Amino acid sequence: MxxxxxxQAQEVxxxxxxxxxxxxxxxxxxxxxxxxxxxxxxxxxVEAAKEANVPVMKVDSMKKLGKACKIxxxxxxxxxxx
Length: 82
Hints:
It comes from Anoxybacteroides voinovskiense. It holds the Pfam family Ribosomal_L7Ae. This is RNA-binding protein GGR02_002736. This protein has 82 residues and is an alpha+beta fold. It has one domain: CATH 3.30.1330.30. The chain has 4 helices and 4 strands. Helix 2 packs parallel to helix 3 (39-52). The mean pLDDT is 94.
């Protein structure tokens, strides 16, 4: 499951704006997106990931993704940094 990947990652970037920025900088190994996040937001991330040729994994819950990132709120997207 992708939650474990996020937990085991050495460095992650949390949030949509930060994820898109990291993708443009070329520092991302993989992107994890919550399926219950707003589609208008996640579409931008998926498009940026396609342009950067970075794989996108989907998980079911923003709340669980935020917990895996050790934050108190839900996370729509997380970038796992190289």
